[in-house]
Amino acid sequence: MRDRRACGSAAHFSRRGFLQTGVGAMGAVGFTGMTAASGAEALAGQQKQVVVFFLAGGVSQLETWDPKPGTDTGGPFLTIPTSVPGTHFCELLPYTAQQAHHLAVIRGVNTAEDDHGKGAYIMQYGHRETPGFQYPSLGSAFAQQLTAPSNPLPGYLTINGGGATSEPSFLGPQFAPINLSGTNPPANLKLPDGLAEEHDRRRRELRAKLSGRFVQGRAKAETEAYNGSFEQTAQLLAKKDVFDFTKITEADKERYGKGEFAQHCLMARQLVESGVTFTKVTHTNYDTHSENFNFHIEQLGEFDRPFAMFIQDLAERGRLANTLVIVMSEFGRTPRINHLVGRDHWSKAWSVVVAGCGIKGGAVVGKTNENGTAVIDREVNGGHLFHTYYKAVGLDSSKAFWHEGRPFNKADPKTEAISEVLA
Question: What is the CATH number assigned to the segment(s) 25-185+250-421?
Answer without folding.
Answer: 3.40.720
